[in-house]
Amino acid sequence: MFITALDLGTAEIKLLVAEVGKDGKLSIIEAVRMPSGGVNKGEVTDVDAAAAALAIAFDEIAGIDKTVLDNVFVNINGKRVVVNGSRGIAAVSRGTNEISQEDIDRAIAGAEAIKTDKNLRKIHTLVQEYIVDGIDQIQNPLGMSGTRLEVYSMIVSAFTEVLNNLTQAIERAGGRVEEENIVFGPLAASHAALTKAHKDLGVVLIDIGAGTTSMSVFEENKLASIKVFPIGAAHITNDLAVKLKSSIAIAEKVKISFGHALAKEMSTRDKINLSDIDPKLKGAITRREVAEVIESRLSEIFELVWNELKAVKKTHLPAGVILCGGGAKTSGIVDLARQELNLPVHMANCEVGIFDVASQDMIEKLEDVQFIVASGLLVEGSSQLGGQDGPKGPGIWGAIKKIVKHIKP
Q1: Per-residue pLDDT tens over the stretch 308-364
Q2: What's the family (predicted)?
Q3: Does domain 81-159 have CATH number 3.30.950.10?
């Protein structure tokens, strides 16, 4: 059996293909990065263009096996994914007052009965904690004694149009995706980038993509906040294109080759001759000027994160900040994030030991922070299909515990 993880982003498509062994261990067979299309700020906005881009990416893995696209796990992002907190209550049904799975299911169903827009479809129920007769912080109440069971959950929903556009693009390109295989992007990233220790201590994971930036905050092993902002690394490129009076492609090249997140660390004497990059361009720009553009936009992103941390009263997180995504590869970003958020900051760390990896080249691909979401989708797929969870120690493969479709963060 194969699992294909699809991180469908605004700028790039990332694919990871794994074969599930008899022991449940995942053997990584292929990792693919291709240009995306038809996606804007995390949403499929042009089904035909997205399908065309996906078809090219799928062609790269089609030769592995005819069933390689039968189990596609994909992320969903964007402003039309909605998260609401909800509580459900159930009276314990047994005369012995022992809490059964039926009681748990009824409490969760009560939480899921939250009133939402009729065009929204639920994609996740994230159980945060159970409360038995007023005693909170319970992770698994099965078999406990009590008369009243409460559950606090976060319900993640997406607009029907968004889900339909996503599944149509995948299916037109030759893939097959079930609705339960669609995973909210920040949740997928947290599966991959955070350990239980991170979540217990308190941590914020920031995933800076091209079109969006997501954040998820955990403390005491509970999800305190999960957000997607419609701003990402592509906005930096757009700002640079305006500054340089150049094409997006040239601005991206300048950003990657000469960019830095902290302007004060760049010399005003270090100049970039624009004609060396594009003969059509004239003049020069200093590396400090480039850095000023980058720092301004990244500071805006970190300000959005900081405001959310203040709103949920989570400004003191011992495990600090974990960065991932393509935008997190910007030189100097760790120092800027530390300056703006006043927290310890680290790049997402990859531990590939639980996988069978074919080559050193494959290991290097998996260690790229741009593959964090795809990695989390693989682990989620393995969990759903009865495979092994990730280890609880350091590394990106934090354990995922899933009961039916009710996900514990």
Answers
A1: 999 999 999 999 999 999 999 999 999 999 999 999 999 998 655 556 776 777 777
A2: Belongs to the FtsA/MreB family.
A3: no
